[in-house]
Amino acid sequence: MILEPYACDPARSLGRRFFEPEAPTRTAFQRDRDRIVHSTAFRRLVYKTQVFLNHEGDLFRTRMTHSLEVAQLGRSIARALGLNEDLVEAIALAHDLGHTPFGHAGQSALNACMQGYGGFEHNLQSLRVVDQLEERYPQFDGLNLTFETREGILKHCSRNHALEIEAVEPAGVGSRFLHNAQPSLEAQLCNLADEIAYNAHDVDDGVRSGLISMEQLQELPLVDEFRQQALAAHPHLADPPQARRLLYESIRLMLSAQVYDVIEATQAAIASAQPSDVSHARTMPALVQFGASMRERSLALKAFLMHKLYRHPQVVDTMAVAQSVVHDLFLIYSEKPGEMQSGFAARAATEQARTPPVPAEARRVVADYIAGMTDRFAAKEHARLTGKHMLV
Ligand code: MG
Q: What's the gap in Å between 298 CA and the centre of ligand 1?
């Protein structure tokens, strides 16, 4: 791997929170990637979903396949830009670890339950997973990842939460939210690869589910341009039985065009800003970017998916049920913490025994427990505790 001077170099990492000797055969970022792949939270991504619920079909994307797609897109772009592929892969594989069951519906329900107790943010939860909640190592909680991987995982963070992080970790991963600085170029790249991946696969899943049609997609300049290109190169794809193949080819062309666009626009931004190293790049406006025209077309696709897919009555109905499942679970566990698995029940008991009581901490245990659940475990727990079979 040939790294540009503005790429993150594992030999000059800002380090781990707990000292560990270097691994003999792997760089610090490769080791982070391996720790993430071996974590419990990573395995749970198989049964967590974003738009469609896990039981709705076996072929829809899960958080696991989404994370792999982000890692693969990210690595391709990183290689072309001379950025650190291993770091990109580590961030991409970890970026969704803190997601609740039932996608955005689960996240907003849990955030509503946690109002008055510090709220719930999935990016912050991803960091909690790798910093505290994974219990795998004898010497520390969490996975003890490098600063660079943790910085990339914390994509967004409110000012209040950034202040809390800063209090325990001065000049740490919360700092940039207080000083309007950017993360490394590898972290910036993961954000964009995330967006490219979900726009493309939600089009695919949306059509597969029957909730959006090929006719609707033709209204979108970004998709239609590549549909026309595919038809021009392969006229037989116009036959109705070839519709699925036409969709795949259009998406493939769209993905490639977006990847080339990011590479070109970012190379131009880097050439004009001339970052000398990573810390210099962090002080500049974001350099990893789409060109203006692709940005506009990508935003139009995002807006389309918001209106036609994420707010489709059928999706909204299922998500409303999912929200009430999360809400019910939160109330039940808050009242009867002994219903949680032993580690969480014990943590809740410790919190409850505190004088004076700290209600936010006791509620945080419940939020951690629910956030870690897969869609199907949450549905099963809900059925066990309420006798109602809402999602199974
Ligand atoms: Mg994502």
A: 16
